[in-house]
Amino acid sequence: MKIKLLPAVMAAVGFVSAPLALAANYQAEVSAAYEDIDYAGSNAEGKFIGIEGKYYFAPVNTANHPLAEAAFIEKSSNVYVQLGTEEYKIGGQKGDIYGRAIGVDFYVPNSIFFLGAGVAEVKSKAPASGQSYDWDSAWFVKAGVAPIDGLLIWSEFTEDVDVKDEWNINGKYVMPLSGEQALNLEASYEKSKLGWADDTITMAADYYIDRNLSLGAGFVNTSYNSSVNTSADTDYFIRARNFFTDKASLELTYMDGEYENRFLVGGTIRF
Q1: Alpha-carbon distance 75 to 62, whole Å?
Q2: Which of 43, 44, 208, 235 has the fewest CB atoms below 10 angstroms from its CB?
Q3: Cα–Cα distance measured from residue 169 to residue 155, given in angstroms and rounded to the nearest whole number
Q4: Whole-angstrom Cα distance, residue 55 to residue 61?
C-alpha cells in the first residue's frame, strides 16, 4: 500500500464523536496496532502487527486529565506484556521478525524516583534462504526522576551494552492549559557506537483539544558515521488519537521517511 499524502491522515481524523460525560477509572488496558510499511524506491514492502496488555497496581484516576495521559500524570506503576511480528517482502522473498517482552514500570512511593526493568526477546526467519534464528533474549532496565507533576526524565540500559558505547536520555512533559486543553512534549537523544546509527534525536508534541482528542507531530533525525555512510536523514510523522468513550480509543500515525513510509492504525480498550 502506497500512501503518499500527509493530508490523508488528517482527513481521517474527522473521527470525533460524542464521548461519555463522566470519567471512569480503569486498572487494565489492551492495545493493538497494525502498521503498513512501504519502502521508498523499491518493490519491498512490510507490515507489523503488535499487541500490548498492561495492568496497573491501583486504579488509574482519569479525572481532570487527558484520557491518554492519565496513567502518566498519576505516576501509575504497572506490569506489561508486549507481542509483535513484522513481515517483509523483497523481490518476492519473504522474511519474518518476532518480538516479545515483559516488564514493569515502578514509581517509588513518596519520592521522585522512577525505575523499570524487563526482558525482551527476538527471533527471525527467512524461509527462502533457509535462515532461521532462535529466540535471543536480553534484559533491560530504566532509571529516572519525576521532579514535578507531569514530567519524567529517564534513561534505558540493555544487557551487555556498555554505557560508553551506547547511552540515551529521554523526557516527557504533559503541560496543562486552559480548560480541558493540554500539551504533551516528548524528546529523546541516543548516542551509539554500535551498528549504523551514530546519533538519533526524536522530538514530538501533541495538542489536546479536549481530554478526548489529540493531534500531534514530530520527527526522528538520524546521523550516520561509518566507513560506508556519513549522511543524515530526517523522518517526519503526524498522529492523532481520540477516545470515543472513556475506555475505548482509536489512533492513527503516518510517517514520511527517507527510506520508507509508514501508516499505523491502533486501538485501546480499558477495563
Answers
A1: 12
A2: 43
A3: 5
A4: 14
